[in-house]
Write a structure and sequence with these properties.
alpha+beta; 16-stranded antiparallel barrel; elongated
Amino acid sequence: MRTHGRRSIALLVVLSFSILTGPAHAQDADVLRRELEALRQQFATVTQSYEQRLKALGDRLQQLEGRAAPAAPALAPPAPRAPAVDAPSLADLARPRQPFALAQPGRALLFDIGVSGDFVADFTSATRERRHDGTFAGRENRLFPREVELGLFGRVDPYASAVVRISAGEEPSEGASSSREVIVRLDEANATLLDLPLGTTARFGLMRPRFGTLNTIHQDDLPQVDRPNVLSRFFGEEQLDGERGVEAFWVLPVSIYHELSLGIFDGDNETAFGRGSLRDPLLIGRWRTFFELEERGGLQLDASAATGITADGHRNTVVGLGAKYKWIGAGSGFPVLTLAAEGLGSFRVVDTSGGDRHVERWGAYAYTQYDVDRRWAAGLRGDWTELPVERGREWALSPYVQFKPSEFLRFRLQYKHTEGRGVVERSADEVFLQGSFILGAHPTERF
């Protein structure tokens, strides 16, 4: 490329010199034109060759750059060594930790908000509707909002959390259909103290006490559409809900999980207690343990006891023993097999024409559920119970199928056949349809 350039410059210099120094009479105009044209052609040829060479070299350079390995990144300077920190003292370990940064003065702390809706349709015979003795008494052959709930929960400060739940639902009707109303009420409003001596926590306010296996579970998270008959007979349709009091909770510092809880409440449950006074409080205690069986699943056991004074001034004590086993398939986490059972005993004193009488009643339920995958599940529940005061007993069988398009939407179809004797003499067939949804945050129910 440089050689062609030098030749072109030399030709131009020679041409200029010959024009300036040669005698003018030795050349005529035609000769000069021919020489000039020849020089132009030669210059164009050299220029074209020069451009072709430049293009070839550029293409070659691009090919070499494409094949070359990427350059190794420059080594980052070594990070400065962190200063040595002394081991924390016992006082440091005992001091409560701040799990998050508090807001600046004048700014509110954020909390979670969630809404859940639970709608149920109960299809049964005209006789059950007329007598109002179906599972959902007073709402037979109706689609009704069982519970629409607004939940607010979060941290109060580094040492306490709180939850507030407001629910609305259709109450049972005793008269004409026009008397049915949707009642709004405060379901829960309690604060939990997270850092108490000996590793305990405690909560106070309005709550669902820790009793048995299903009491703390809300309506939309039940394993079946309805609660087992023994729970409904002993405590009412919503079980021990809306108790006011204080409850302490302790996980024992041992290798196997053990959890103890003890609560003192007013005793406002009219079905089982109803005294409603701290002078004769409702006392509730529960022990729960969990065994991890590795690839064979997990087993939960719990024992509960509640004792209080009834509205007529007599003591009632209810004890319960529950078990729940869950096996989860390897890989994708499905299928899931769940086996659960719970038995309750009631010991109370009732007024009779001959004086006070001690009444002992028993009841139990058991169910199994098989989750095929994330969407489909099927199960079967069996119930048997005596009435807590009157003479009578009943049993029921309830197969069901569940479909969950997602974790926030669920549908259930359940059939229930009930046979009652004594005061509850009946033979009832019911079909339940349930639709539940969740908006926003929703705490996961415990195992």
